[in-house]
Design goal:
single chain; 234 residues; alpha/beta; Glutaredoxin; seven-stranded mixed sheet; 5 helices; 7 strands; 40% helix; globular
């Protein structure tokens, strides 16, 4: 690639990152406004209408029956709900072919791959606005971030310190990314998006930038534009 093409590609990535930041800031302002409006409505409802008591037992049974019917029971077992397998493309990216469940659960999940590329997950996402974690994070929260279109960069102790520093620098300047150590994975460095994964041995591998360019808020995103802030930090 010529220097002019590299400069153009770099400018395009910077413009895309800035657009994501503007979109994220606008979304945060809108969410704050909606939260205030909802709080006012709740208070007004309590003052005007009083508190209405319902039959907790019958209501609980009805809700449980509805959740079971629709497959969204928050107290499901530890299953990820996933079915399928990986297919590896010419670029080395492994794509999950099959079902990736998206139920919110409050239990630990047994994923069929490490790191997970999707499946049942925590109701709370992991902050992923170019966020670098120096300690391992919970799979269930990170998978929720993948659902929002984030790319999760993970590394083992076999990754060099120079590679870790280089990856941290990439992540910090890229909205909708996060990074954390992850020992239970096949390759020293792995990049994971919803339904897609790439393993490399070096941060200088050209697949790293290609993966970020393709899958950060890429077409695979189940919930494009959903927030990467306001979640959990651990």
């Amino acid at each position: 690639m010529g220097s002019a093409e590299k400069t153009a590609a770099s400018a395009e990535r910077k413009a895309r990152a800035e657009e994501m930041r503007r979109t994220e800031r606008a979304r945060e302002r809108r969410n704050r406004l909606l939260t205030i409006t909802a709080a006012v409505a709740v208070v007004a409802g309590l003052v005007v209408g009083g508190v209405v008591l319902v039959d907790a037992q019958s209501g609980g049974k009805a809700a449980a029956a509805s959740d079971a019917k629709n497959g969204t029971n928050p107290k499901s077992s530890g299953s990820s709900g996933d079915s399928g397998h990986f297919v590896t493309g010419k670029d080395g990216v492994r794509t999950w072919t099959g079902k990736l469940s998206r139920n919110h659960v409050d239990t630990a999940v047994d994923y069929p791959m490490r790191p997970p590329v999707g499946g049942n997950h925590s109701p709370v996402w992991l902050n992923c606005n170019g966020t670098v974690y120096t300690e391992p994070v919970k799979d269930e929260n990170a998978v929720h971030s993948l659902e929002h279109g984030a790319v999760w960069v993970t590394y083992t102790g076999k990754a060099s310190k120079a590679d870790v520093r280089a990856l941290e620098a990439k992540v910090r300047k890229t909205p909708y990314t996060l990074m954390s150590p992850y020992e239970n994975q096949k390759d020293p460095i792995m990049l994971t998006a919803w339904g897609h994964q790439l393993g490399v041995r070096s941060a200088a591998d050209p697949g790293v930038d290609a993966f970020l360019a393709t899958y950060v808020q890429g077409s695979q995103t189940p919930e494009p534009g959903a927030s990467c802030t306001g979640g959990t930090m651990k």
